[in-house]
Design brief:
Strand order of the largest sheet: 3-2-4-1-10-9-11-14
CATH superfamily of the largest domain: Aminohydrolase, N-terminal nucleophile (Ntn) domain
CATH topology of the largest domain: Glutamine Phosphoribosylpyrophosphate, subunit 1, domain 1
Number of domains: 3
Oligomer: single chain
Bound molecules: 2-deoxy-2-amino glucitol-6-phosphate
Shape: globular
Distance between the termini: 11 Å
Largest sheet: 8 strands, antiparallel
């Protein structure tokens, strides 16, 4: 997703705009730009591709000025070219934008009729021309912005500077996150607090509809206006975020580092949820799971959706409570039947995914209890939900989720057992909770020797299509494995419930399409073995992830990766680490951009 930075200072800002953008690179982007005001002139520098291109451009053509805005663009409207890169500007005003202006075409048509010449294909450019028109009509900058915002439909986080007012910086938030950073002698805007951490830990999270006007005259001051344009005070939080640039810690990629961090992050997460002495739940939520009519709804996107699909098995098997799982992008538009008995759980690493956030707001409007499971403490979902539980995976920089995903599984598993305890649906809860405390060691075992994953990655890097299968909780892990592989290696990968293969997808099987089977020796093992055999007889290369040393398949090309002995609860963590490694090493051998794969964003704040 796009990243936004704004700085109002007494010192030059161009370099720090770039520094701030570099702390937003993890969000994914394909062009970048900055603009400052100097000697009553707005000047831009924009470049396609990675931030280094922009840095090189600034080396050649430095940008003076003590007020400025910056942007990393993840293309939505218009290809990732220099012309479409932000900031967009007229002589009078410059804007950077994260989000989508849904009615931009109508607005653009009107502006063209007024004689405006557009230079880009972006939706954002309508914003800058609308503000410019209001300024030309004599409106003050804040009124020009207010009038413009009232015409916009869709989502935006905006940072805005004005040629005639180089002592001013404005920000606006609707549907996309924006934070205000506060110092005595300068003020900041950012898409998240982490981007501003090297300069300030005093952060104010703008709420939906907020506009902030920041001024430098005798000192620095700001005023926040709510949607009704009334001045409002928002809480200033004193954070304690890491100020250093994210470091790979000696690993070749953030993703690899984050895969290897899982043993620790899972331990941290489990210990926040389970009392290691009494093996009882430490979850402290004012939510009653025991009601007769209670229904659990898990709503998420992408990997977080697969974590939720896994949890469905746990809620229904252990807590014996009805559990439905929805893709957030579907849930919010399908008129779901909701009631006050619904406990709606929103799972999100970033806590900013617009589809999931919109689904959360829908559930709230229907009177449901809302619980967010997120990895970013001060994210929009944390603040919008009635309750939240944090996954303690720490900042996840790789766009492909790994440690945050396994931490989501940890929270969801502990929550299902917490619900089971309240519902008195089983009497072996403490046994399962104790078992979970051993999971980090099992994950560490998977990662002790990754040479087989490396070899397999080399083999898979030469394929075009890969099939994954699994049964029970192994099925959503197969889905996650397929997503990881396609996300970072760009190899087409599909996952199916093993029992579903014969209902059509087996037509895809040929000797060029390897099958990866998630097959721990569990209750589903025998049937999965039959499904593997069905594929092997059709000539496909077979790769089996299992803890059964005796398992073999008679076929042309067979590989087995032996994993630690697992139980129905621990298996998903063990096999998750394995499929993450398979994806990572395949991408490594393919030479793709593992940490920032093409077209992807770490936080999808647009629909
Ligand atoms: C995960 O590897 C993907 N990058 C993506 O599917 C992600 O899980 C999805 O966009 C949801 O993001 P969230 O967890 O931040 O809501």
């Amino acid at each position: 997703m796009c990243g936004i930075i704004g700085i109002l200072s007494n010192t030059l800002v161009a370099e720090r705009l770039i520094d701030g953008l570099s702390r937003l690179e993890y969000r994914g982007y394909d062009s970048a730009g900055v603009a400052t005001i100097y000697e009553n002139t707005i000047t831009k520098r924009r470049a396609e591709g990675k931030l280094q291109s922009l840095k090189d451009l600034l080396q050649q053509k430095p940008l003076p000025g003590t007020v400025g805005i910056g942007h990393t663009r993840w293309a939505t409207h218009g290809s990732p070219t220099h012309q479409n890169a932000h900031p967009h500007a007229t002589d009078r005003v410059a804007v950077v934008h994260n989000g989508i202006i849904e009615n931009y075409q109508l607005l653009k048509d009107g502006l063209i009729k007024d004689g405006v010449i557009f230079k880009s294909e972006t939706d954002t450019e309508v914003v800058v021309h609308l503000i410019d028109q209001a300024l030309q009509a004599g409106k003050s900058p804040d009124i020009a912005v207010k009038e413009t915002l009232s015409k916009l439909h869709g989502a935006f986080a905006l940072a805005i500077i004005f040629k005639e007012h180089s002592d001013m910086l404005m920000g606006a938030r609707r549907g996309s996150p924006l934070v205000l950073g506060i110092c005595d002698d300068e003020l900041f805007l950012g898409s998240d607090a982490w981007a501003l951490a090297p300069w300030t830990q005093k952060i104010c999270y703008l709420e939906e509809g907020d506009v902030v006007v920041m001024k430098r005259d005798n000192g620095f001051a700001y005023t926040i206006f709510n949607e009704a344009w009334q001045p409002i005070n928002r809480l200033v939080k004193h954070l304690n975020l890491a100020t250093g640039a994210a470091s790979k810690g000696g690993y070749s990629h953030f993703m690899l580092k984050e895969i290897f961090e899982q043993s620790q992050t899972l331990s941290d997460t489990f210990l926040s949820l389970i009392d290691e002495e009494t093996h009882t739940s430490r979850i402290n939520l004012p939510i009653d799971f025991s009601g007769e009519h209670v229904r659990i709804r898990l709503i998420a996107c992408g990997s977080s959706y697969y974590a939720s699909l896994t949890a469905k098995y746990w809620f229904e098997k252990y807590a014996q409570v009805l559990c439905e799982v929805d893709l957030a992008s579907e849930f919010r538009y399908r008129d779901p039947v909701l009631s006050k008995h619904d406990i709606c759980v929103f799972v999100s690493q970033s806590g900013e995914t617009s589809d999931t956030l919109a689904a959360l707001n829908l559930a709230k409007s229907k009177g449901c209890i809302t619980l967010a499971i997120v990895n970013v403490p001060e994210s929009s979902m944390t603040r919008a939900a009635d309750h939240h539980i944090l996954t303690l995976a720490g900042p996840e920089i790789g766009v492909a989720s790994t440690k945050a995903f396994s931490a989501q599984l940890a929270v969801l598993c502990a929550l299902a057992l917490h619900a089971a305890a309240q519902r008195k649906s089983m009497d072996t809860i403490s046994t399962h909770l104790r078992e979970l405390l051993h999971v980090p060691k099992l994950v560490a075992q998977v990662l002790q020797d990754v040479s087989l994953f490396d070899e397999l990655g080399l083999r898979l890097s030469q394929t075009r299509d890969v099939l994954f299968i699994g049964r029970g909780t192994n099925y959503p892990i197969a889905l996650e494995g397929a997503l990881k592989l396609k996300e970072i290696s760009y190899i087409h990968a599909e996952a199916y419930a093993a029992g579903e293969l014969k209902h059509g997808p087996i037509a895809l099987v040929d000797k060029l399409t390897p099958l990866i089977a998630i097959a721990p020796n569990d209750g589903w093992f025998e049937k999965t073995s039959s499904n593997i055999q069905e594929v092997a007889t059709r000539g496909a290369p077979i790769i089996v992830l299992t803890d059964d040393p005796m398992f073999t398949v008679n076929c042309l090309e067979f590989r087995k990766i032996l994993l630690p002995k697992s139980t129905p609860l621990s298996a998903c963590f063990i096999y998750t680490a394995a499929v993450q490694c398979i994806a990572y090493y395949t991408a490594l051998h393919k030479g793709t951009d593992v940490d920032q794969p093409r077209n992807l964003a770490k936080s999808v704040t647009v629909e």
